[in-house]
Structure formats: structure tokens, C-alpha cells
Amino acid sequence: MKVIIPLLLLIAMPLQAEVFKTVTPDGEVIYSDVKTSGSKQMNVPEPQTYTPAPLPQPVQDAVSEQEADGVIYNRLAIDTPVNEETIRDNQGNIELLISSEPELIRTDGHRFVYYLDGKKQGRRTIDTRRVFTNVERGEHILTVAIVDTNNAVILESQPVKVFLHRASVQHRFNPMNPNNPNKAAKKTNP
Questions:
Q1: Could you give the C-alpha distances from 136 to 22, 169, 170, in angstroms and in order?
Q2: Once rounded to an integer, what is the mean pLDDT over residues 56-79?
């Protein structure tokens, strides 16, 4: 116990401090930052440190060119999924959650339009949640825009890149595989 406390003190000391070790005639070991007669200077190794990897940064919010012209939307962003996220879904579903500041002004006829790989998906909507279904596996770009009654874009989000992983149809037990042994067993059993 006598050795542990001085060692803890050594760890807490600044790196530039000198550390001296003295052994008394009774065999007691004393660590100090003051040099005494019979003490020896210790070489204290540099403490080990850990620097974690930086957290992924969300895609920056879109800034409209029309903002200076008095457009009231300050922000439109895809909150989920985050940029470069990998989605594992064998049904090919990609769920989007979006937010805007301020909230969508419905009374002026403003609506959201969702895009997958640059192609419009569905109708204009007021929903801040959208699920794309049966999307092919691979890399995809998601965007959303606020449009007016004439479908003119008021503000568009920054694109979000996602990677969709689905089990291959060629996998032996995939229900969509015509060679699935489970399908053959069902056909033979009445």
C-alpha cells in the first residue's frame, strides 16, 4: 500500500517534474520531487494517451441562394440516415426522417418532395418521415426539397449518401431464389 500511493502521485505530477527515489535503512521506499541525500533520480516514462477517432459529422445544412431574398426557411436537413451510413435491410427499405426550420408552412401550399438518386419519389407531401421500399442494394443518394404550389424549389437539403446491403437472391435459402430447397419441399408436401 505504501508503494501504490507514491506511484499514484507520480502519475498525477506534471511531466517536467523530477522524481527522486530514496530507500531508508529500514527498507521503506520514498518517492519525492525533492532531492535528498542518498536519493536517485528516476526516469518516469511519458504517460500513455488515447485519442479516439473523430465522430462522423452530419451533413451540413443547406443554405438557400434565396435566403437573402427573404425566404423564411433557414434549414432543411435529412436527420436519418446520416451521411455514408450502411443500411442492412433485406426488404430494401430506407427510412428518412427530415426536419426544417421553421416547420413547413402548409397554408402557403409548401410541401416536401423526396428524391432517390435524383429521381422524384412519390407525390408532394407534408410528412417528415418517408420510407423508400424495395430499393436495390448498393450506393444511393438521398435528398429532399421544399417546393411551392408551382413545384418551384424553395430549399433543397444537402445530399446524403447511403449504402444498402441486401441478401443476394442467389443465396441458397433466400425465398426469392427459385432453387431454394425449402420451396421444393413445400411443393412436394400437400
A1: 72, 11, 14
A2: 67
> How far is it, in rounded angstroms, from Cα 148 to Cα 101?
16
Question: Would you give the distance in Å from CA 22 to the centre of its chain?
Answer: 52
Would the pLDDT of 117 be above 90?
A: yes
Domains by residue range for the chain, with CATH: 4-42 (no CATH), 65-165 (2.60.40.10)
pLDDT reading at 182 higher than 80: no
End-to-end CA distance of the chain: 77
CA dist 42 to 1, 9, 11, 31, 49, Å? 20, 14, 13, 9, 21
Residue 178 has pLDDT above 80, yes or no: no
Copy the grid coordinates of residue 11. 502519475
**Which amino acid makes up residue 24?**
T
Place of cell 498525477: 12
Q: Using the 8-state DSSP alphabet, how is residue 67 labeled? A: G
pLDDT digits (tens, 9 = 90+) for 14-57: 445 688 999 988 989 998 888 888 889 988 888 888 888 888 77
